[in-house]
Amino acid sequence: MLVNEIDIYNRQRGINFKKINARSFIIGCGGTGFWTALFLAMSGVKKLFLVDNDVIEETNLNRLPYKKEDLGRKKTEALRDYIKEVRPVCSVHIIDMKIETESECMVIPYQSVIFCCTDSLRSQQLLRKYANLSSCSYQRVGYDGLVLNVSNSMPLTFKNPDDLQGYTETPSWVIPAAMAAALGVYSQIYNKVVCMKEIGEVRWDDNYIDENSKSLIMKKVKDNPACAACSYIPDAYWTLRGMRGPTITR
Fold this sequence. Notes:
By secondary structure, the protein is an alpha/beta fold. Helix content is 30%, strand content 12%. It has a 6-stranded mixed beta sheet, with helices on both faces.
């Protein structure tokens, strides 16, 4: 039976989507990346770029609707096939790589939409900075256990990126992954949604930073233009707090 695309989207008429025809890059195709790509395709986005080089493991099956037969397949290939089953008209392109350096960000053209679904803090930082420099829209889609991390800004942390190993040891399940993806897609194609604490309410890890160091670290971020974290903090954050942000050459 042939399915009429117009009929599929009949109930979506009247919704004023924005940027729905922009090139959408999903960086990381695991827990949140899968649902982000699927929700974009089901919302009518016609062209998706899936960026990852990882394979499906058994631990992925607790939050992704794959079959046991998909174990060992590239996440990008399995996701492409899944999307083509439900939205054949969606053009899905695969980029078999991980983004871990500034030069690797160049695979994303100017004025694209970046959905950052990677669990690598280093990649998150690189992608946020690249978005600033390349006029790309940036959407962080992630979660840490049961805490959603959906924002247009880089989450502030003072941990060493090399010390953060993603979700390897963090409990995870399907609901936070799907919720984060849904909020991220909603934010980009319909109306802005931000689900994280403001920078003035940083969620500190007491095992890493003691109370007496917090104000000193915040001052360092504000006053030191060379501090890497500064380039990921929007000017609006400083303005809202009556503060003058650092001068950054972009």
